[in-house]
Amino acid sequence: DSICNQTSVAITLISSQNGSAFEWTTHSNSLLSGASAGNLIGNNVTINQIIKNRARTPQIIKYKVKVSYNGCIGDTKEKSIVVIPSILSLPKSQFNTRKQFSSCSC
Which of 11, 36, 25 has its CA nearest to residue 65? Predict the structure, then answer.
């Protein structure tokens, strides 16, 4: 999955038990900001964190989520998301009209 710079990761967490507890950690490099560890209780709840990519290249953020219910701990799941940087203005000398760019129109 991928998102544009400065948009929400919007990860929906679903459990077969209503009232489940979801706990997550995040892993990324220092060029990404906006993600933090946290927790939610319920079923069909969403992690909404706006992620900012300060790099000129796509960066990856990983979320590790574990679910528990009434003392029972489920499997830990991992989700990686590519954060695509905003479109940059390049000097004319660096512009190549044959090159295709992956960019967001956010």
Answer: 25
Report how many helices (DSSP H) and strands (DSSP E) the chain contains, helices first: 0, 10
Length of the chain: 106
Tens digits of per-residue pLDDT, 26-51?
Answer: 999 999 999 999 999 998 999 999 99
Residue 32's nearest CA partner among 64, 7, 8, 60 is: 60
Residue type, position 102, single letter: S
Nearest alpha carbon to residue 67 among 24, 8, 4: 24
Tens of pLDDT, residue by residue over 83-93, are 999 875 445 55
